[in-house]
Design goal:
There is one protein chain. The protein is mostly helical. The longest helix is centred in the C-terminal third of the chain and has 23 residues.
Length: 195
């Protein structure tokens, strides 16, 4: 005898679970080789549901980045005209998120994503990541003259250096926190920086 099927509204899809399934597929087969159809099938959701939750494959990799961007936006508003430098940017923007990676499960998921980013660097051009970079640049502009190109340049460099440190941490940083690896890298790049 077959079990009775439930009628009515379908069960809501869990975006975090779907993103983890996709990440597993990307790890095994490579980002470029996995299709959205294969992800939908492996996650037991329809393609329509998958595209509703994640309009692109890169959105699956960056699951949760919109929340980070929104928190950075709030933090940037409170720091307007703060004249932040490298250590200040790390302290105000990166540390709150990097501390979350002290939880082993979060660290393992982050390491998987970072290893994937190392193999598919085009993923670093994700729009919410660029928005975060622009928010940091605006905050860093502080008291600089209008039209000064240094804050956007420095913000992009800081984001790139932070990701480089985190990618190193993902590959080699066992026994070291993500925050410690990032502090070490940025501290070496700007050893006399004061906030």
């Amino acid at each position: 005898m077959q079990p009775a099927t439930k009628r009515g509204r379908p069960q809501e899809a869990d975006p975090r679970r779907i993103a983890r399934v996709a990440l597993g597929l990307f790890e095994r087969h490579g980002f470029d080789r996995v299709t959205m159809g294969e992800i939908a099938e492996a996650a037991s959701v329809s393609r329509r549901t998958l595209f509703r939750l994640f309009p692109s494959k890169s959105d699956l990799v960056w699951d949760g980045l919109d929340e980070v961007r929104d928190l950075v936006r709030q933090r940037a508003a409170t720091l307007a005209r703060a004249d932040l430098r490298v250590a200040g940017v790390l302290r105000e923007f990166a540390e709150p998120f990097l501390r979350r990676l002290d939880v082993p499960e979060a660290a393992e998921l982050a390491r998987k994503r970072l290893r994937l980013l190392a193999t598919a660097p085009a993923l670093l051009n994700h729009p919410p990541l660029r928005e975060i970079e622009a928010l940091i640049a605006t905050t860093m502009a502080g008291r600089t003259p209008s039209g000064d190109t240094r804050p956007p340049l420095v913000a992009r460099t800081l984001v790139a250096a932070t990701f480089a440190a985190l990618m190193w941490w993902a590959e080699h940083g066992e026994g070291m926190s993500a925050l410690a690896a990032t502090r070490a890298a940025l501290g070496a790049l700007a050893p006399t920086d004061e906030t």
